[in-house]
Amino acid sequence: MGTTASQLGKDLLSEYQELTFLTKQEILLAHKRFTELLTKDEKDHQNTRVSMERILTLPELKSNPFRKRICHVFSTSEQKDGGLTFEDFLDLLSAFSDSATLEIKSHYAFRIFDFDDDGTLDRGDLEKLVNCLTGETDDTRLTTEEMRQLIDNILEESDIDKDGTVNLSEFQHVISRSPDFVSSFKIVL
Amino acid sequence: MEEQKSVNFMRLLSEESTQSTVSSDSCEYYQMEIFDLLPSVQASRPEPSRSVEQGGAESQARLGHGPLSQGPRDKASTQPLRNLALCMQGKRAARDMRKMQISSIGFWKSWRQSQSTNMKRLWEQMGSAVAGLLPWRHTLHRIEGRFGVGVKAYFVFLRYLVFLNLLHCALTAGFILGPTLVYGRGNDSKPLTFESNDSVLDFFLGSGYLDRSPVFFGYYTRGSLDQKCLNTPLLYFIGILTILFLSLIMVVRRTTVGYKHTQMLGKRYSTNLCYKILCGWDFTIQDPAGAVLKQSFIRNDLRLFLEEQSFSLREAQRTLGQKVRLCLLRLALNLMVLSLLGGAFYFIYFSTEISLHEDGHHWLLSLFLQYLPPMTITFVNLVLPHIFRKISSFEDYSVTTQVNVTLVRSIFLKLASLGIYLFFILTNTKNEQHHCRENQFGREMYKLCIFNFLATFSSVFLLNFPRKLVQEWYPSSAVARRLGKQHFLIPFNVLDLVYGQTVSWVGVYYCPLLPLIGTVTLVATFYIKKFSVLRCCVAEHRMFRASSSSVFFHFMLLLGLLLAGVTLGFNLRQQEDRNTSPCGPFPGDQTVLKVTETCVGSLPSMVQTILRYLASEAFALPLILAEIIILTSYVSRGRANQKAIDRLKDMLVMSSSDKVFLVRQHATLLRGQRKRQRVAQDAPVLQQRDASS
């Protein structure tokens, strides 16, 4: 692999193009932005893992309430610290790119919203999700009663098999009928 | 060869094992063994690569992209690698697996596969190149980042109107302006010069110099291109008809696209709340302030939803006396709205009268009087919607109904005031002998168009901007606090656009260069509104869904188009009756019908008979019948689909309940077995019981 600190090799570039939804320009831009996050001596190494804190300084992620979840989902780190290598970063951008399919986007959206990583959205996940959406401070949060009413409504609408949780297929069922989802589930550098 | 294969196989095995270590962070659904064995569970499991591939393939088959007979494996291997929900290493592994498959299926197929990927990539590049040509992408991106999808939808709509008008311009140039310029005008027409009594004011009034210019109907007299079926008047008429028909097709297309979406959203299974939660966050937002705002929209929206729910509960508990009182109140308020509308219409009538009868005043007064009707219409449309908004807050409707009621009233006001104005001008019979009636009509439309733009301009630079400056300079003053923050009211702004486009459509017959003027003003409006949004406004507190209201807006555009068609028909009919138009391509008794008839008369007799048959009642009946049959078939098909959806939903519920039942059965069986074991061994197996509970 011909990764140097400043430039990507031609083979690698075309491989990335094949494996992601990104165009050549987008990959090069992503590489530029990623190397800016690295320190001097890290630049010499291949496949350096950048810690989550530094990834989150990117303006595209900085104000996103799901930023930590996004890092955790796309990280392949063994320590589960949410650190991203350049390839993880490309995976992230690919899933959030304009041309990614609804299938991919909804899959990753599900995993981002699945806070406890148990493969299904239960009441706890939904509560955390609503809290992320409304803001986490005490005065912005919904009251317990409101939250209960809200989650009851969500489950009533989307939980088709009535098992008290929303699984991936139910989630995709809801998402696939939302015309706005593909246009809003996007992060472009 | 054998060795090679075994190596590949080993590699495959090792790849799978690494994948399973990668997937270990996904937890097990349930501890029970049988649950894991159920096929639906395996399909919906996110992590292991094979099940994901299968899931993708299944959903593709569900969508009907390929023949169902192919196995899921085959389908998955034709799916592009990037469609797999795996990390980069996983995709590499999948690719290596596929490479092995390709080498085993032979050269020809692999070549074809690589060709198809190349073709796909080429198409993608072309698509992105075309998308890159669309103007204002960067601006739209920025606006989207700060204000979310809703405000962007307004600007996209604006851009669409610009394109529509550009198309109109091209048609005008091809059918109307081009032939007249190339083949010249009638013999008695004077060359266009700036005369001594013309002034700059003419550009605002559309009189004098502009009256004789190509802007208006009167310029296009019959030139040297004078064959029976190819003459400038006929081309003129065909051009106008093409513009209207093309607009109709384009708007209908966009409306149906939006309509399909809302139909899919459907009221049957209200999943609105789910969208708010599961698709609620707009990941394009970059600005921290924007994110905070978005959170507050969502919060407000959710509170709104809960409020509506409790409102409907309260509504159900109303007593009879309360109901009666509310009815009376609403009746009174509706009467008030009606009287306001009536007053507005009378106002328009009054100003039209004054403006049509003015002559020989000082130029400033004359300018004012000339612009009185547009000013009245704009003023009325500026003030009344806000009054309507206030009124509807007293009516004790739920919040969404309030907004909708206000919108419906404003739309009615907007289109009806334009319609009434047109009616007054059309039925006005004064001084038709001296002037070119069509020119006069076109002039009114020209003035409406110009004034609409001026109103946009001045409302931003004389109202919004100073208001913002006051707030910035004296943020603590009483005035600033009273004024409050400014929001970009998308519905009202879109209404303005629709109104402008309607005026353009109505006027295009009388003022063929109106689309050009429209394009210029729309482009200017884009920049003005961009300034207004980015500089003066904070984002709205009500959520605005891009998809839900766009149908409504396109529907209004259709209404506007209908208004334009009716006006044109009415005017042509009037011309037929009077036979006294002194100017333009259809002077004297050379009316539109006469010109087309002469053309039809010169055609071969076969074509003539066909055309006459097509225009006769004998053809209308079969046409209507055929339409009814087609419509019926579509409606029944839609119903059948609806039923199929219902049945599928039932099946989904049934199968899942079956699954739950089976699992329960299995669990009890296991428990029974364990009990027996326990009795036999006389020692409790704590761990297993934990697992099963």
UniProtKB/TrEMBL annotation, chain A:
Pfam family, one: EF-hand_7
CDD domains for the chain: EFh
SUPFAM superfamilies assigned: EF-hand (SSF47473)
Alphabetized GO MF terms: calcium ion binding; magnesium ion binding
Matches recorded under InterPro entries: CIBP, EF-hand-dom_pair, EF_Hand_1_Ca_BS, EF_hand_dom
UniProt keyword terms in alphabetical order: Calcium, Magnesium, Metal-binding, Repeat
Domain (EF-hand): residue spans on this chain: 101-136, 146-181
Protein name, as recorded: EF-hand domain-containing protein
Source organism of the structure: Salarias fasciatus
Lineage, highest ranks first: Eukaryota, Metazoa, Chordata, Craniata, Vertebrata
Gene that produces this protein: cib1
UniProtKB/TrEMBL annotation, chain B:
Membrane topology term: Multi-pass membrane protein
Keywords, sorted A to Z: Membrane, Transmembrane, Transmembrane helix
Pfam families with a match to the protein in the record: TMC
Principal place of residence: membrane
Localization: Membrane
GO molecular function, one term: mechanosensitive monoatomic ion channel activity
Cellular component GO terms, alphabetical: plasma membrane
Protein name, entry field: Transmembrane channel-like protein
Organism: Salarias fasciatus
